[in-house]
Amino acid sequence: MHNGSTPTPKRDVISAAGIVGAALLAWEVAVRVEQTPVYILPAPSVVAGRLWQNAGYLSGAALVTLGEALGGLLLGLVVGVATAALITFLVHLERGVLALAILVKATPMVAIAPLLTIWLGFGPLPKVIVTALLTFFPVLINVHSGLHAVDDAALALFHSLHAGRWEVFRHARWPSALPYLFAALKVVAPLAVTGAVVAEWAGASAGLGRAMWLAYANLNLPMLFAAVFCSAVMSIGLYVLVIALEKRVIFWRRNVSLSAD
Amino acid sequence: MNIALRGVAKTFDGKQAPLVALTPFTLEVATGEFVCLIGPSGCGKSTLLRLIADQMPPTVGDIRLDDAPPGAARKAKHIAWMAQNPALLPWQTVLDNVRLPQRVNTAANRQNGRHTAPDPADLLRIVGLADFAQAYPGTLSGGMQQRVALARALATGARLWLMDEPFAAMDELTRETLADEVLRLWQTFRPTVLWVTHNIVEAARLAGRVVVMSARPGRILATVDIAHPHPRDETAPETAAIIRHLRAVLREGSVNGLN
Prior knowledge:
In chain A, 82% of the residues lie in helices and 0% in strands. Chain A has 261 residues and is mainly α.
């Protein structure tokens, strides 16, 4: 933060674009030189062409997946935060609830996703649940840590005023948990898209995962890659959104770094 | 608010053996007195303050604040607590931080009536931070943050100020300025002040009475009354004599402690 080599946002974007561009170029050249068949590895230009021709189909599928990812993200977020708050107020529940959460975390999603499809059908609900399960655990663990990261000196102050537990939560614990919550969201938000796609592979009537599965079944690799590209763009978009939101919500961190400059 | 400690002792459960922090301790402080507790680190002066603040119970003995247990004073927000760490909430403005004591435990507000708690905006003016009411604590210097903490302590309207080395982390000059400010506020509001410090000069400049404590286990080595008026210049002969005396008592205590 103090050295002058911190890249400006603009320079950051240019260098990132440069690296991605170079990688794509190398891929294009390699495929053309080696004359790799398109059913093994399509060149980026071919993928881009397929993307363009099927823009309507793919964006429709992407919207379905995005809806599932956001729904699951929201559900996992609400349940994770509520659970963390609950075990902060009812401390004797902490061990039991965390053990249960680890059990959920330890179950592979690849096994759960088909089960949910059998139970709940081909609609969006199983995908929302898979994404929520992915979101829930990091949110719970991080928010729980954040709620307990309050300074002892601040707790002594609240104690000296005989403040209630809810008052301590509102004024001290919840704001101090927010940076922890965003740390979890930065991991989970891009993962949510992947979660929804994986759940769609287990059986779906719509969505990017279904588009991928169909393309794979027909060895239509350009389409498969185009769908992967769409899901990657959405992951990156969600990540950028979380960062932008974090800057707005956790404004006091900026103040701290300003005074340190 | 007057303080009466009778035979108060505190023993902590150590890893191997119990740790005696305070041996039976008896002290009376009259309403409106300014008392400094001074002693080497680990002499239990902070422990004593925490006991009075109802942050933990004494192992034996009896603590009375206006003839009631300390818990009653705390529940009624009659205690202003201030420590070395300003513990401001970085997500609230300076003014909201100062208003905090009035916003929580509102049941006590109703009991105390309206007149007791001073206006937070006035308090910010008193500590010289009126222009920073809408600033966030992260943008302030350490000395200014401690001043906000001071205004926040005053916002309780409490008649007992418990101050645990409040300015120990500040540089010499800031510490003196802030201590003079507290002195001025004490002269205005006339609360009972119990001030923990390990700074001999600070104690001699501020206190009406200095309680000198020995190293662990903590006990009273001497109490020294200081009668001459504020402001006191530490180079003035009578203050210099007090400083010399306090130093001698502390040195004697540490020598006896070694034997």
